[in-house]
Amino acid sequence: MENSTNVGNKRALLIAVRSVNKKGFFPLQHAHEDAESLKCLLIDKFNYPETNVVLMKHDVKIPKHLWPSRANILEQIAKLVSNASPNDQFFFYYSGHGNQVTCKHHTETDGKDEGILDSTFARHN
Length: 125
Description:
21% of the residues lie in helices and 26% in strands. It is an alpha/beta fold.
């Protein structure tokens, strides 16, 4: 990541979804901790400015706009790439459950689309 002589802005979006509101999906015990550790690594080892690393998780200690709902995730993805310039670096991380559904446009060889689940069990692909 640091070999480029003309490095632009470094931005990261880290999403941690410990549990979803759906039967059969068990809580992921370390989703939050893994994302927090990665945030520290990006800042301390790879020199990402702390203000450019956004961590989303369902936690009453952080603002609700950073809870990983569908709307909030889409808003933060848009912010991640807004005003992008050549040589900018983007890092996207998701720790949580995924899901598959039947592909309606017949472009997947396995017939399934993959997606991530937010904390309200909405699927995103």
